[in-house]
């Protein structure tokens, strides 16, 4: 009888211990191979570049030359746009990035590829001259457009590494099935493109490179989907009216900058992070700078899971639920933004901790530094973000939200509409992202896994902590079956000492 009692006690103790251990492991802040080891240094570098451009603008303001009129203080635009001959040196843009995605080289060093055909008839055998043919090539390419064009995709556009999609000098619109997918790639620049009315597509073969055609399940209908990718820069795009997210970055993606974009008419605008339990997203690092979050937006600007998110000098002019949300302990560093709260008295808070009790999120590092809070808007800081000493040590100087107008004045496609208030009929509808619900949660799972990050073909991690309990119980049962009562008794002192 005694051996049976000891075995049962051992089983219960061991299962409890293993369950606690697995839950503790799940809280580790894992690193990704390409994440920056000192994110605060990247933040300070962004601030320094803004300071330099603003100072230059002030220095030239008294002169009447064309360059003085062009300079805005926006360090990205001032890097290339004031050169009247910029079109002769398009690849200079690759040197103008800031933030975590500043290493994105796109197609720099490669040939210029001119898109002359706006059709998208065959995703398996794309026609030369089309955008799809260009983006699947293996070599670096700097892709430009021969004329204004609307590209209505049949299925998602799967982009290969080392590509720049450069819409400057033309009005380029991408719409239709799936839209743009960046999966397990690096060094992508997407610039000056209008993306809208993206709807789910798939269950079809789609070519991803000259040598590979793969079956793709149904896509979510994101404007731009970033999946297990790095060194990504999305700049001066206008995005609206997609079925799921306008920009989603998941599954261990990192080294991303989202800048100078114009977001309108959408529910779930931007998701950063696959799932609360997906540990590699702890290494996600994203800079969100100089964007205009405009009319018709509801939530997720962005919604973050894990990672380090720097939100700097953006203009938030509308939300229905909240502007910035998060779960699973992301670091959110909000600097020099303008947050204009809606009329709704129940939606004044900028921030939302999604499905988390205050006792759990009080230690999360959410900081507001130099933000302008308008019409009753309020930002709830937490963790180190509550410390004035931390803010002083981490900043060159707080970024004045008074700069927002000039830094975001050209957000979106150059020469494009400032308010996409008229719904476009292309692309099959104007659904706006997953249904407007009060939970603010949502998924982000792609569903079409071609192998997890780091090349493993294993399935995603367990989706519930209850799995930890089941596995620990199973492990304990197996162990008991292999132990005699004397061995169990011998192990008890060791167990009690843990």
From TrEMBL:
Keywords: Calcium, Lyase, Metal-binding, Signal. Its EC number is 4.2.2.2. SUPFAM superfamilies: Pectin lyase-like. Its cofactor is Ca(2+). It holds the Pfam family Pectate_lyase_4. Residues 1-27 form the signal peptide. Residues 148-345 form the Pectate lyase domain. GO terms for molecular function: metal ion binding; pectate lyase activity. Belongs to the polysaccharide lyase 1 family. This is Pectate lyase.
């Amino acid at each position: 009888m005694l051996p049976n009692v000891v075995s049962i006690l051992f089983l219960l103790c061991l299962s409890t211990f293993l369950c606690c251990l697995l839950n503790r492991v799940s809280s580790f802040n894992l690193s990704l191979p390409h994440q920056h080891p000192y994110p605060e240094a990247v933040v300070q570098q962004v601030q320094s570049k803004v300071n330099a451009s603003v100072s230059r603008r002030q220095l030239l303001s008294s002169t009447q030359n064309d360059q003085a009129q062009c300079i805005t203080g926006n360090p990205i635009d001032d890097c290339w746009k004031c050169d009247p001959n910029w079109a002769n040196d398009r690849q200079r843009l690759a040197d103008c990035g800031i933030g975590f995605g500043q290493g994105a080289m796109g197609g720099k060093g490669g040939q210029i590829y001119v898109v002359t055909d706006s059709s998208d008839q065959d995703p398996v055998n794309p026609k030369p001259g089309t955008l799809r043919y260009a983006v699947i090539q293996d070599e670096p390419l700097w892709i430009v457009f021969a004329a204004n064009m609307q590209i209505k995709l049949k299925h998602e556009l799967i982009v290969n590494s080392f590509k720049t999609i450069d819409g400057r000098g033309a009005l380029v619109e991408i719409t239709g099935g799936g839209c743009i997918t960046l999966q397990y790639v690096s060094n992508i620049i997407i610039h000056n493109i209008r993306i809208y009315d993206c709807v789910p597509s798939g269950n079809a073969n789609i070519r991803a490179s000259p040598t590979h055609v793969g079956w793709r399940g149904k896509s979510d209908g994101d404007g731009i989907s970033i999946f297990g990718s790095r060194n990504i820069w999305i700049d001066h795009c206008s995005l609206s009216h997609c079925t799921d997210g306008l920009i989603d970055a998941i599954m261990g993606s990192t080294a991303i900058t989202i800048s100078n974009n114009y977001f309108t008419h959408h529910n779930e605008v931007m998701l950063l992070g696959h799932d609360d339990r997906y540990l590699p997203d702890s290494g996600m690092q994203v800079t969100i700078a100089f964007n205009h979050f405009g009319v018709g937006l509801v939530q997720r600007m962005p919604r973050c899971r894990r990672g380090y998110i720097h939100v700097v000098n953006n203009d938030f002019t509308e939300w229905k639920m909240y502007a910035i949300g998060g779960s699973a302990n992301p670091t959110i560093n909000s600097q020099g933004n303008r947050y204009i709260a809606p009329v709704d008295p129940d939606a004044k808070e900028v921030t939302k901790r999604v499905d988390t009790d205050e006792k759990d999120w009080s230690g999360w590092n959410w900081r507001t530094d130099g933000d302008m809070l308008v019409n009753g808007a309020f930002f709830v800081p937490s963790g180190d973000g509550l410390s004035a000493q931390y803010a002083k040590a981490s900043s060159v100087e707080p970024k004045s939200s008074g700069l927002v107008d000039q830094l975001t004045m050209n957000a979106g496609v150059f020469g494009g509409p400032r308010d996409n208030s008229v719904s476009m009929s292309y692309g099959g509808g104007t659904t706006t992202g997953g249904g407007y619900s009060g939970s603010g949660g949502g998924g982000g799972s792609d569903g079409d896994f071609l192998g997890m990050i780091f090349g493993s073909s294993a399935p995603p991690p367990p989706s519930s902590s209850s799995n930890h309990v089941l596995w620990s119980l199973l492990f304990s049962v197996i162990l008991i079956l292999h132990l005699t009562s004397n061995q169990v008794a011998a192990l008890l002192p060791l167990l009690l000492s843990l």
